[in-house]
Amino acid sequence: MATTSRKHHHPVRTLVVFGLVIAALYAVMGFSGVYTPKLGLDLRGGTTITLTASNVTGQGSIDRTSLELARTIIQQRVDSMGVGETEVTTSGDNQIVVSVPNVQADELVEMVGKTAQLYFRKVFSVAAAPAASPTPEPSASPEATEPPQETVAPGESASPEPSASPTVNKRPLPQLPTPVPSPRPTAPADPAQTLDDLMAWEPSDRDNSEFEAYTCGEESPTPSVVDQPLIICDETDTYKYLLGPALIQGNEVSRAYAAVPQGSVSWQVQLEFTDQGAANFNTVTTHLSTQTEPQNQFAIVLDDAVISAPSVENPIPGGRAEISGSFTQASATSLANVLTYGALPLSFEVSSVDNVSAKLGGEQLVAGMIAGLIGLALVVLYSLVYYRALAIVVVASLAIAAAITYVMMVLLGQGMGFALNLPGIAGAIMAIGVTADSFIIYFERIRDEVREGRSLRTAIETGWERSRKTILVADSVSLLSAVVLFVLAIGAVKGFAFTLGLTTLIDIAIVFWFTKPFVTLLGHTKFFGEGHRFSGFEADHLGHTNPPLHNGKRRPVTVGGEA
């Protein structure tokens, strides 16, 4: 009878190391202070926003390519929030629907509602202008009399310098002139204007009067038209600006990112322009560098709000620039995201904002959990009936698999924004069957080895050698299916594919580093090694009269009472 080489295995050491790994995962979870997975839109609830598109001029039908490009940019904006399971889809001919879990409505509207064109405009006047209040105070707080000081310079060689001081804050005019001025144009009057024409523009007396009278929080007296002046405030309604026509469009910025340059200790925003944008930016900065305060500033305008207004000291050729000032990491990253993802080929308005209730998803979750518990109970019952005391391995392995799956979902939710949804729970329930398949393959191989006359200790090792390839092949097929589904699927189905792949990997780890060494330890016990009743290895249960023994000296198997 062929003998198998006896290898020195250390099941206790393997189990201890595996236990320490699990303990480390839970320690990381405890350190993070988060103990529950992030839930998807269908379980926790979230926000759905519908955006309706229109052309910048307000005329003509919506081009499908432009709508898809806008959807991609909005998807990038939402992804920059680090939120899992977001959905940005087109609906009909002119709508984009944004669905995001784990985010409050106002936060999401602030992110995706910035759908106007991104422009760079010349600053002509800037003044502190607190928002109007129904109960105005007799004296304004003088803490903020100047806007944030930011400068723009070529490449990475700039050092932060104070930008232009704002113009003196003046009292609003007591009343608007009468009669009311005629409406301003709402569409470009002369699309053939050159960049030089736009840079030569100067504000009129009417522009200056309306700027003096304007209070942040009111409707701007100037429509947002590219070749017309614009009177608006910054995002906090602290400063108001009189801006000239748009000089550079946002789509002329090819890339923007936040960084701390070498040799510096402060955050800056690095800009890179397209070829046409680089030429235009050089022309504009050459012009601005010759101007006096505050007309040496350009305002970055998105959704009728000034995001930033850096000053220009020198011409900036080459298509690379950096904006420096009092940036934090968060503010620099926010500005970089605006510059990168702000320019949309269409204009949008928020048509509806809906908070998605998790009540229906909660009911489905309960039903899914009940189904999972029934499946788990059936697996355990089958193991008890067919494998008897060996069911302890099944129960322990499933419990550890559940513990690892839970902690991984919590950590992945914190680390990469993974959100658990109903399809994901279905994938986790399927893992019970995947894990049960691995048990059956291994246990049946051991029982076959015992029937062939080997002792239990030998059968455990030879059975593992012959079954692990089958287990790996079966799990590889499941893992490959999950990967393909994740790559090709969209929306919530990705949650199912991701969870299925994750639990399959966990099953491989469980089988190799818990099930196998645990069974090896059981094989050293008298109860299992000598085939005691209800051990799962008793002779009559295996179909023969020769019980398993610890040692390797076995007489041939007797079937039906004959040797």
In total, how many beta strands?
14
* Percent helix range: 40-55%
CATH architecture of the largest domain: Up-down Bundle
CATH superfamily of the largest domain: Multidrug efflux transporter AcrB transmembrane domain
Amount of beta strand: 15-25%
Secondary structure elements and pairings:
Elements: H1 11-32, H2 41-44, E1 46-54, H3 64-79, E2 87-91, E3 95-101, H4 105-112, E4 118-128, E5 150-154, H5 195-199, H6 205-213, E6 230-233, E7 239-249, E8 253-259, E9 268-273, H7 275-288, E10 298-302, E11 305-308, E12 311-312, E13 320-325, H8 329-341, E14 347-356, H9 359-387, H10 391-416, H11 422-451, H12 456-488, H13 493-523, H14 526-529, H15 539-542
Parallel strand pairs: 5-12
Antiparallel strand pairs: 1-3, 1-14, 2-3, 4-7, 4-10, 5-13, 6-7, 8-9, 9-13, 10-11
Your description of this structure?
- This protein has 563 residues and is α+β, with helices and mostly antiparallel strands.
- It has three domains: 215 residues, Multidrug efflux transporter AcrB transmembrane fold (Up-down Bundle); 69 residues, Alpha-Beta Plaits (2-Layer Sandwich), CATH 3.30.70; 202 residues, Gyrase A, domain 2 (2-Layer Sandwich), CATH 3.30.1360.200.
- Helix content is 44%, strand content 16%.
- The chain contains 15 helices and 14 strands.
- It is elongated and about 110 Å long.
- The N terminus and C terminus are likely disordered.
